[in-house]
Specification:
The chain is built from 13 helices and 19 strands. With about 425 residues, it is of the alpha/beta class. Helix 3 links the parallel strand 8 and strand 9. The structure holds 5-methylcytosine (17E) and fe (ii) ion (FE2).
Length: about 425
């Protein structure tokens, strides 16, 4: 036995916690051997490591369904995004893109992956701009994917930031990116010059994905234009091609401006199509509504409504310190907290749902659901969170005590209590927990 985690509360998926406490045994090969009821006398085999959970939450790792590792940590280079819009962000990035080198991309992407591992993220889908004749970021991220393979899984989306149809050579570059090993095909229909070009770009993306057996994840309707309706095209293509839950529409912020009648039609279509949605609250709370007076829209997709319609919705971080988001530590618990307020998921049952949107719901976006979880035979990938429930982990914004990948501890954060000297009382450690 490699490891025994004793006395843990087990996250069971969909925001729920399994009844009672459990012990989890990790076999030598780095997979879960057994999950059994808690026994305080249980010991690991002589060489095994014992982790006492003390009732803390044991969860499969966080999953980041949407990040841009190629642009990360470039904020202010060569100059800031002064207007704060998506459009100026794309223009600033276009300038920075010309100076990319292999070492530059590898260095920044690896740094953010380290942050993610420390935060308990072990599965990542990153977009990578392929509207670049050199495809330097794509090749660099493919190297990074190989380097981290033993600890984290990294999916690379060939993302045509400046268009497939409207950018000169866009389709050729996208096709070349797939040939060079991209895992997922991207698109950006709302950025194409015309509605027809947007539709054509989605057709191209789906044909390419089908030909190579890949998934699709498009930046889709990331604009406050209620007439931007590419998600219906994406869902229909997903339905007719059979890609279904292998297709994802990211951002879809125009949905925040759709009228009720159209929204109802769309909910039915999206549910039938099986596609996933990824909302990115940090970026879109910052970028959208910039052309509005008051009332000012907040640029979020219909998270609550689509969940109610049975659509899989996940939360993504999107950016870390780049032209579209100046801040970020790549911590999904922050994404969940901001996302749940933005989407008003403040009900007692909705807060755990926000947790599922950075764990099992995000895993479904990546298509890794079969190996994801703490079931016998699954890779022993997990986080032990100093919290008693998913809602508490979100509320207290905890960092994992342990992050374990395939039975090995990759990150450890000791508890660091804050001493409070309160008038008339002896100093105590502050306890933010509530029963
Ligand atoms: N590119 C884009 O088109 N949209 C975004 N939100 C980011 C990059 C971050
Ligand atoms: Fe994005």
């Amino acid at each position: 036995m490699l490891m025994l985690v004793r006395g843990a509360r087990l996250y069971a998926g969909d925001g729920r916690v399994a009844p009672g406490l459990v012990d989890v045994e990790v076999a030598e090969g780095g997979h879960v051997a057994r999950v059994v009821p808690y026994d305080d006398q249980r010991e690991p085999a002589s060489t095994g490591r014992l982790i006492e959970a003390h009732g803390d939450l044991l969860s499969p790792p966080f999953v980041e369904p949407h990040i841009h590792l190629d642009t990360a940590l470039t904020v202010g280079e060569p100059r800031p995004n002064a207007s704060g819009t998506l459009w100026e962000g794309i223009a600033r990035w276009s300038e920075r893109k010309r100076t990319l080198t292999r070492e530059d991309v590898i260095g920044r992407a690896t740094e953010v992956l380290r942050w993610q591992a420390a935060n308990g993220v072990l599965h990542v889908r990153t977009h990578c701009d392929v509207t670049d004749e050199r495809l330097v970021a794509l090749d660099a991220l493919a190297e990074v994917r190989d380097r981290v393979r033993d600890v984290m899984t990294l999916q690379i989306v060939a993302f045509p930031q400046e268009g497939i149809v409207s950018f000169p050579g866009g389709e050729r570059l996208l096709t070349e990116a797939v040939a060079r090993g991209a895992d997922v095909v991207g698109a950006i229909p709302h950025f194409e010059d015309t509605r027809e070009d947007g539709v054509a770009s989605l057709r191209t993306a789906f044909e390419l994905a089908e030909r190579h057996g890949l998934r699709v994840d498009a930046h889709c309707d990331e604009i406050d234009d209620e007439q931007s309706r590419f998600v219906e095209v994406l869902a229909t293509l997903a339905l007719r091609s059979g890609l279904r839950d292998r297709a994802t529409a990211s951002h879809t912020t125009a949905m925040g401006s759709y009228n009720g009648a159209y929204s109802y039609k769309l909910q039915r279509l999206l549910a039938r199509s099986g596609i996933n949605l990824v909302a990115n609250p940090f970026a879109n709370l910052g970028l959208q509504g910039r052309f509005d007076g008051y009332p000012k829209r907040r640029g979020l997709t219909q998270v609550k409504e689509m969940l109610a319609a049975g659509v899989n919705v996940a939360f993504g971080h999107d950016d870390v310190m780049d032209p579209w988001n100046p801040l970020g530590t790549a911590d999904p618990l922050q994404t969940a907290l901001v996302g749940l307020y933005a989407a008003q998921l403040t009900g007692a049952e909705e807060i755990p749902t926000a947790y599922s949107m950075i764990t099992d719901r995000a895993a479904a976006v990546l298509g890794i659901g079969e190996e994801y979880g703490l079931r016998p035979g699954c890779p022993a990938d997990f986080v032990l969170l100093p919290a008693g429930s998913p809602a508490e982990a979100v509320r207290r914004q905890v960092r994992p005590r342990y992050v374990v990948s395939r039975g090995r501890v990759v990150a450890e954060t000791p508890a660091a209590p804050t001493r409070l000297a309160w008038p008339g009382e002896a100093p105590v450690d502050v306890d933010f927990t509530r029963p």
